[in-house]
Design a protein that fits this description.
4 helices, alpha+beta, single chain, 5-stranded mixed beta sheet
Length: about 130
């Protein structure tokens, strides 16, 4: 990846996943963890979810995106990448905030897995109560 003065770097997060996004002016290709976008996210619905900020702003063919994603599962990683792309677009052009913010793409989804409590089988589940 070339080092350029037009390089925009952001971080997107969702659940346990974090995506480091680097965005350069280009032709619209997306590389995720040194793999093609279509190879990394195999489901069409997940790919559409990731592309939402680019499609909403009409910038899907204007930038090349290079992302490194760690942690979480496929859906969490897709959400982290979407968040990172939205933040990069906003960093590039401040006027896009009016489009991205109402769509909820600049807000980090703060829902995390609840921890397991001691003496219980899960986070919320309890052992069966026995009176006698």
């Amino acid at each position: 990846m070339p080092a350029d003065k037009d390089l925009i770097q952001t971080i997107g997060r969702r659940k346990c996943a974090s995506a480091r996004v680097r965005m350069l002016p280009g032709s619209g290709k997306i590389i995720v963890n040194k793999r093609a976008f279509e190879d990394y996210f195999t489901t069409e619905s997940v790919r559409g979810f990731v592309m939402q900020p680019l499609v909403l702003t009409g910038k899907s063919a204007d930038f090349d995106i290079f992302a490194n994603i760690n942690g979480g599962g496929i859906i969490g990683q897709a959400g982290a990448l979407r968040h990172g792309i939205a933040r990069a677009l906003e960093k590039n052009d401040e006027s896009l905030r009016a489009t991205l913010k109402p769509a909820g793409m600049l807000t980090r989804d703060s829902r995390e897995k609840e921890r397991k409590k001691p003496g219980q089988p899960g986070a919320r589940k309890r052992f069966q109560f026995s009176k006698r």
